[in-house]
Amino acid sequence: xxxxxxxxxxxxxxxxxxxxxxxxxxxxxxxxxxxxxxxxxxxxxxxxxxxxxxxxxxxxxxxxxxxxxxxxxxxxxxxxxxxxxxxxxxxxxxxxxxxxxxxxxxxxxxxxxxxxxxxxxxxxxxxxxxxxxxxxxxxxxxxxxxxxxxxxxxxxxxxxxxxxxxxxxxxxxxxxxxxx
Length: 180
Prior knowledge:
By secondary structure, this protein is α/β, with parallel strands linked by helices.
């Protein structure tokens, strides 16, 4: 009987920068968890602080990958989402949850969309509304403080932060195990 945990990591591949699947994959694997990936895009750099980056959208590949896995009878202990590059990808990931989730599957959503008080330039201003919909499906939600503010429709407050400020954000996002 195979007792090794298995997770799906749905995220971009940034060819430069310390983020995306290039960081998540080795960390998750170091914990002894078998990690299967669904790349949402390939970028020359991450989207925060860089301009003129290349962006290869992989939206059309997401559901065929999932459908192939379903045909193989693969099961996963967790589904982790990171960078989703469009409203269409958000809708597709909602379908992925329905296709791959079992009663034991943990849903982890990192609503990658902003940092340092700014929505990433790649996203339209109403993108947090779409991300909120996906976040409602999460068992664990892991936004940074900018993303938490956007999800709560609150203005971003730059640090330094007090423990009380962080605790209030956690309470505002009730129902989730929040890791900021």
